[in-house]
Amino acid sequence: MQHPRLEAALARAARDLGAADDVTVRLERPRETAHGDLAANLAMVLAQQLGRKPRELAGELVDRLDLQALQIESAEIAGPGFINFRVSRDFLFDGLRHVCRAGRDYGRGDWGAGSRVNVEFVSANPTGPLHVGHGRGAAVGDTIARLLEFTGHDVCREFYVNDAGSQIDKLVDSISARHRQLEGESAAIPEGGYHGEYIVDLARELASDLADELAADASPEGRARVRRRAIERVIEEQRRTLEALRVQFDEFRSETELRESSSIEETVEQLTERGLIYEREGARWLRTTDFEDDKDRVLVKSDGSYTYFLPDIAYHHDKAKRGFDTAIDIWGADHHGYVPRMTAAMRALGLEKEFFEAVIVQLVRIERGGEEVKFSKRAGEFVTLRDLVDEVGADVTRYFFLERGPQQQMVFDLDLAKERSEKNPVYKVQYAHARIRSVYRRGDIDPEGIDFDADLSPLVETSAHEMIKTILGFPEVVEAAARSREPHRITAYLENLANELNSWYHAGTRDASLRVLGQEEAVTNARLVVVRASETVLRNGLELLGIEAPESM
To answer: Which residue numbers delimit the DALR anticodon binding domain (predicted)?
Structure first.
């Protein structure tokens, strides 16, 4: 819950007492409701600077506040010098009206205005179907992008196609072997090659016009044609899978095209000019230890070939040259150790340390009946993302991937995912929204016609006041989730609001006087404003997660 007028008034009071002109005031929600609605530690922060006792200073700060004008019911000094505030009913009611008027813009911020952010995620090798680990990265990356857009940033969603490595040669060899097997020839999948039915499907499809190129004695030109077509088909399948998860990209960038451009050479030249490349044992090294890496890194091997690190540096350098202020990468757990060296490389190029960020997404374990599900018939070696989305749907898949912090390992319980009860968190949140829509239908109410300016004084029950406080906390949660790159803050908030809303609703089943409908007109109108505000926040929160807000369930 935010109260910018109170923050400004505290800052003025602090300056009157001798604080610096740029004094910063932060209000926070106390962990215990008994301690009030908002708390400030300003007196303790200023006490040492001003040579004052914190509790005395806190009292003087409060004395300089016009509590009534600020819609503050009470201000108490607690502990070593905290100031605990309780907001008035008028503050809550005005806030509730603001939520309803703002509608789909409620929670939107502008602190990111003018900032261009590149969010790169998934970036899977074009060698086969996406697995569930890619899916978690997709949900996290897309939701971070949504949060950043909602807070004013100019965001580009980007997929880096790793189409230049030896894994592509193995893909071509695997398709060729499957084609020859289908033709009755003896052919083995190469070591480290790809298995699963999708390779057979690719072999059949490509053989329609590339049969000669799939032969064992195919020319380099023929293999190159197979390579291009195979990459195109795999990427197209990956895109369709991601679209089924409601994930779309603004840019697909190719490693092959990067290598064919001058980007790598330009990056090496710039690092050389900065005196950060040296030769040792015939190889060229980057002084990443100058920028807090644990050791220097090889960029060019003694045979003249590039390490995998150099094209990655050039690719991220290209993001800066395209005008992005921040580059956020969503990486799997196996890339954790890669973060310091990439951060060092960006600093070596003269970029700020804050330019590059990596969000590490931990592993996913799929379970059914308490047992791990390991294999997919189509992929041969892992559970595919498409299998998962087809089985439980995009809403459940996204929500489960987002419910925990990215750096926490997770178990995806298929049985729970299919359960239509409040044990299933996404069902609970969506059902709370659907229940609100059912209230409108039962009361023959046009939600657009609800009078937000109605007298809200009939809202006397404590449960309604507490729910309003939760509703008014949404913008703060959105900003915190965007700044920390932690979408699970939104899921936790929505589950809490759904719990409060369901408790409020169920109270009416036990006591008819607490129902929304069937009351005196003034009472029903006031409660409908709470319902409308709750619906607004549930819908906006679900949209940030890329999840539907259903009319009925």
So the answer is: 429-553
